[in-house]
Design brief:
The chain has 299 residues and is α/β, with parallel strands linked by helices. It is 38% helix and 16% strand. The strands form four sheets. A six-stranded parallel beta sheet has the order 2-1-3-4-5-10, with helices on both faces. Strand 3, helix 3 and strand 4 form a beta-alpha-beta unit. The protein is globular. It starts with a strand and ends with a helix. The relative contact order is 0.16. The structure holds NADP nicotinamide-adenine-dinucleotide phosphate. The site of NADP nicotinamide-adenine-dinucleotide phosphate (NAP) has 28 residues, from helix 1, helix 3 and strand 4.
Length: 299
Amino acid sequence: MYRLLVIGQEGQVGQAIKDRIQDQCWDVLFTDIDTLDITNAQQVENVFKSFRPDLVINASGYTDVDRAEYDAVVAESVNAYGPYLLALQCHNLGALLIHFSTEYIFDGHNHNAYLEADRPAPLNVYGRTKLQGEQYIKTYLSRYIIIRTSWVFSEYGQNFVTTMLLLSRKNAPIRVVNDQVGCPTYAGDLANLVVDIAKDYQAATGRYRFGDYNFCSDGDNDRYSGVSWFDFACAIFEELDKYQSGEQGRNLIGVTSVEYASIATRPKNGILNCHKISPIFRPSDWRCKLRHVIAITMA
Ligand SMILES: NC(=O)c1ccc[n+]([C@@H]2O[C@H](COP(=O)([O-])OP(=O)(O)OC[C@H]3O[C@@H](n4cnc5c(N)ncnc54)[C@H](OP(=O)(O)O)[C@@H]3O)[C@@H](O)[C@H]2O)c1
C-alpha cells in the first residue's frame, strides 16, 4: 500500500491535512514533535526505517517569527537541520518530500509579485532558517516539492483570524500594520493541494514536476496586488459584523511598520505570483474561505 508520513499533525496545516487525507485508501502515519522530533537524527532514522514512506509531507516548523529573533538556534534546528535530516532519509528510500516554505525568504523590495526564481534575501531569522531548509533539501534530494506560501489562516490553532476574533472581544483599540502587503492563504487549500500532489505521484501522471511552487489563496485575482494586514483585519471584522451587532471593526487603527515596531523585520511586499501552479491546481479566493472559517468559529 502507498505509504505517507505526515509530520507536524498538530499544526494548522497538519490538522487541515489530517481532515482531508482520512478518506484516501493510503497507509498514513501522522506524527508531531512528541512522536517524531525532526531535529532528532536517531528518531528520524528509526521512523523512516520502520515505516518506509513513499511520500513525506513536512508540515512542521518553527513559525513564531518574532520569538525566532532571540531563539535562533532552535529556529535553525527545526527549520533547517530538521529538513536536512528528512532530505537525507527521503534520498535513501527514494521518497518524495513535500515541504512548506514562506514568502519571508524575500526582502520585499520587489515592485511586483515574487516569482519562484526570484533571488531570496531574508530580512529575519525565520526567513533565513526557512531558506536554509530549502537549500538543504535542494542539495541532498532531487524528488522534492517545496510549496512557498503566505499568511496562513484556518479554523485550527492560533493565526491572524483567531487573534482578531479574540481581540474583538476586548473593548480596546486594535493596531494593525497597513504598509505590508501579502496574500492570505487558507490551510485547507494547502491541504487539498498536497492531497492532489500525493494522488498525482501515486498515479505517476506527472502533472506536478519536482521543484518550487508558490501558492496562496488568491484564485480570483490574477493581478497579484495582495492586501495589507489592515485590509485583512477589515475583511475579518466585516464578516464578524454579520454575526454580532455593534460594528466590531470600529476599534481598528491602521499603523505603519515603524509605529508597530515588531521584534522581527518583515518584508513590505510578500505577494507571491502563483502563475506556475494555477493551471495545475487553481487556488481559491481567501475571502470565500474567510467566510467559511468565521462561520465555523461563530457556530
Ligand atoms: N503560518 C503561516 O502563516 C505560514 C506562512 C508561510 C509558510 N508557513 C509554513 O507552513 C508550515 C506549516 O505552518 P503552520 O502555520 O501549520 O505551523 P504551526 O501551526 O506552527 O505548526 C507547526 C507544527 O510543527 C510542530 N513542530 C515544531 N517543532 C517540531 C519538531 N522539532 N519536530 C516535529 N514537529 C515540530 C509544532 O509543534 P509545537 O506547536 O509543539 O511546537 C506544530 O505542531 C511551516 O513549515 C511554516 O513555516 C506558514
